[in-house]
Amino acid sequence: MAKWEYAPAPESTDIVDIKDTYGLFIDGRFVEPASGEYFKTINPGTEEVLAAIPVAGQEDIDRAVDAARTAFEKWSALPGSQRAKYIFRIARMVQERARELAVLESMNGGKPIKESRDVDVPLVAAHFFYYAGWADKLAYAFPGRRAEPIGVCAQIIPWNFPLLMLAWKIAPALAGGNTVVLKPAETTPLTALLFAEICEQAELPEGVVNIVTGAGATGQTLVRHPDVDKVAFTGSTEVGKEIQRAVAGTNKKLTLELGGKAANIIFDDAPLDQAVEGIVNGIFFNQGHVCCAGSRLLVQETIAERLIAKLKRRLGTLRLGDPLDKNTDIGAINSRDQLERIRSLVGIGVEEGAELYQPACEIPDRGFFYPPTVFTGVSQSHRIAQEEIFGPVLSVMTFRTPAEAVTKANNTPFGLSAGVWTEKGSRILWMADRLQAGVVWANTFNRFDPTSPFGGYKESGFGREGGRHGLEAYVRLAEVR
Ligand code: NAP
Ligand code: MG
Question: Is 77 among the domain residues?
Fold first, then answer.
């Protein structure tokens, strides 16, 4: 068989202008942190230092929340059509600066450029367009009830989809008439700071969006600030629980989008080649750093052998390496910590007796990389079948009947997403009724759309993002009198 060799196809980084040192974006300006502290942010694909990022301390958080509080008065009083104008402007600027945003996202986060370019950034623009459309229609969004802004929103986002999670949080908040203080993850602050520049460029009124950088302690200070009215968090279940405890007994509204351990369920009548593509997309998209990743594969026993053989063959064709190369399928693991976490859980999988498969694959000398990994012979009690690995690691189990598939799929503390592959529409509906998952994909996986709500059950959190449901998280609903 002819083997096609790919020539290197690196995306140029000329379009991004990374500063040596950044400021906090507070009240419409970049300012030095009162804390005087900075940390370094790196490129996980090369381990090269990209910039110094400020650490926001208590005083900085106070300033950011004050700015958001002051801005709230005017912003919430603007007619919805005026707020829409700004949000549409941001959406168009994201499109205009799409390449710059995509390159920076891949440099700072490690995801393949083809994903940041074709998935993340287009979805970011789509979210701002979508919620801009709601800003002047709040009176019609919730029939019989009046939607009022909540106030100052503290938003804390993770590193796996830095810009997209920012969009999921900021777009509905602004549409609903709220103001925002957002903290990006420690390892991926750069696109949020570039977004702050876009807010400046869009002439968004000062203080409506504030971006504060730092580590977990900064997030903790922000969540606990007494003048915050709403907290929105995406990240680990552990930190989610801590935040829930921190806001208990206050008036703060809370939404939590936490981890997952999704089942991707393949029936014997599924189109197997398409299912293989869906499995690959389900677990290797963004190196598996996806809360809704299809990290547990449930295969009907009669086709298991054939499907796994196809899957292993497909794994051998995945291209791992430079995130900025346009042909790369699997980029860099986001951080050394995350790489260690993946290694440790894979080690536990081997110790527990599951069978490991990794295709022959060259790992670059520098940067954080992990090969695509499949475990077979996994039982439900294995830690690799229960815990979120958040890496390119798939655990395969089998089932005989639809009922058994449902029982196994639901046998997890999480409930974020699931996938069903079958030719029969009736079976898809039967399964979707019984799967405890916020999203059930049928004959596809990892599809996102701003009009469609996303969120979890059980330890995957509560509240929805996207769609009209996502808007509801950013308004108080009152009786119409
Ligand atoms: P994480 O600690 O939950 O981080 C999420 C965000 O919360 C980050 O901005 C983080 O800041 C901040 N944070 C950390 N501690 C906080 C606290 N006590 N109060 C307020 N904010 C706080 O997640 P992680 O440590 O990056 O990843 C650990 C695991 O979480 C992963 O291996 C994965 O299993 C899971 N995870 C899930 C998602 C998801 O989308 N559901 C996303 C990311 C990770 P720092 O970045 O500075 O820590
Ligand atoms: Mg953390």
Answer: yes
Among 435, 335, 343, which residue's Cα sits nearest to residue 43? 335
Q: Which amino acid is at 197?
A: E
The tokens for 481 are 């009198």
CA gap 301, 428 in Å, rounded: 18
| 245 in the same domain as 333 | no
Return the best residue to mutate from 37, 53, 108, 156 for the ligand 1 pocket (most ligand atoms within 8 A of CB): 156
Give the model confidence (pLDDT) of 303-343 as tens digits. Answer: 999 999 999 999 999 999 999 999 999 999 999 999 999 99
CATH of the domain at 203: 3.40.605.10
List alpha helices for 202-329, DSSP H: 216-224, 237-247, 272-284, 301-315
Residue 1: its pLDDT value, please?
A: 54
* Pocket mutation for ligand 1, best pick of 61, 239, 290 (most atoms within 8 Å of C-beta): 239
For the stretch 408-435, pLDDT in tens is 999 999 999 999 999 999 999 999 999 9
On whether residue 115 sits in a domain, the answer given is yes
CATH code: domain of residue 369:
3.40.309.10
DSSP 235: S
Tell me how far apart the alpha carbons of residues 375 and 349 are, in angstroms, rounded to a whole number.
8
Specify whether 326 is located in the same domain as 199.
Answer: no
Examine residue 17 and state whether it is found in any structural domain, yes or no.
no
* Cα–Cα distances in angstroms (integers) from residue 396 to residues 19, 298, 353, 373, in the given order: 45, 6, 13, 11
Residues 151 and 290 in one domain: no
Does ligand 1 lie within 6 Å of residue 219's CB atom? yes
Do residue 468 and residue 438 come from a single domain? Answer: no
Q: Is the pLDDT of residue 4 over 90?
A: no
Q: Using H for helix, E for strand and C for coil, what is the string for 88-124?
A: HHHHHHHHHCHHHHHHHHHHHHCCCHHHHHHHHHHHH
Q: Is residue 257 annotated as a catalytic residue, yes or no?
A: yes
97 and 157 assigned to the same domain: yes
Q: How far is CA 224 from the centre of its chain?
A: 23
State how far the Cα of 51 lies from the Cα of 38, in Å rounded to an integer: 10
User: Residue 480 — pLDDT band, cuts 50, 70, 90?
Assistant: confident
pLDDT of residue 2: 59
Give the β-pairing of 417-421 and 263-266.
parallel
Is residue 219 in some structural domain?
Answer: yes
Number of domains in the chain: 2
Does the annotation mark 242 as catalytic? no
